[in-house]
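tool_call: predict_structure(chain=1)
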Amino acid sequence: MLSFSAILSVAVSLFITVNAGKTYSSQCPFGNPLIDSRTLSQWFCGRRPSSKPCPPNFVCNIDPADRFAVCCATQAPSVNPCSKGDPLVDAGTGEAWYCGLGPSSQPCPKTYSCKVDPADRFAVCCLI
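tool_result:
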């Protein structure tokens, strides 16, 4: 007969396998894993040939059992203006995607909306 901890371990393993494409906040010490602005999926930085190094201000967090390898922020963000998730990060610069006024502005992808601070301190893309 299997112990409760063995059954729980199998259940957790199955949950992680079935939900492999989803984000789990426990993958990073603070915040969520970096989302690649080109693919809108987690940035893979692991030990496979398809991996790519994390951008500046991020570090690769690889699960000991190789269930995930994601880029995590090196320090906690000061304030998160998004009510759902973290601001979208530009894969090329490692900085928050800028959607405000000016020549460097970019429209947010379809599943994001532009959140602009009333005092114009930030303009970032947040999950809808």
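agent: Confidence is low (pLDDT under 50) at residues 1-24. Proceeding to next step.
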